[in-house]
Amino acid sequence: MTESLDDGRVSFGSRDEIELATATDPVCGSELRRADAAGAIDVHGIVYFFDSIACRDAFAADPDRYTRPSGGDTDH
Ligand SMILES: [Zn+2]
Questions:
Q1: Which domain holds residue 34?
Q2: Ligand 1 centroid vs 45 CA: distance in angstroms?
Q3: What is the enclosing helix (H) or strand (E) of 71?
Q4: Is residue 74, in this structure, part of any structural domain at all?
């Protein structure tokens, strides 16, 4: 975990702000703070965030596998 004491702009006053500040890793399904993302990839105008380089690489290797709209979702 990393903590930055000089960043005092943390505000949870708005639910929308929280929604905007977080993202779901499409590879492993983890929720992460965008500020903490290990990487991000833009696909067709949609930016995907990843919690680790491994997830980013997996996504980069086969984006369609993770961006395909519903259907075939195994709901693991
Ligand atoms: Zn991940």
A1: 6-67
A2: 20
A3: none
A4: no
Counting the structural domains of the chain, the total is: 1
Q: How far is the CA of 52 from the centre of ligand 1 (A)?
A: 6
Name the nearest CA neighbour of 37 among 22, 26, 49: 49
Q: Which residues surround ligand 1, an ion (CB under 5 A)?
A: 25, 27-28, 30, 51, 55
Instruction: Write the pLDDT tens digit of every residue in 7-60.
Output: 555 555 566 666 678 999 999 999 999 999 999 999 989 999 999 999 999 999
End-to-end CA separation in angstroms for the chain: 28
Distance 29 CA to ligand 1 centre (A): 6
Q: Is the pTM of this model over 0.70?
A: no
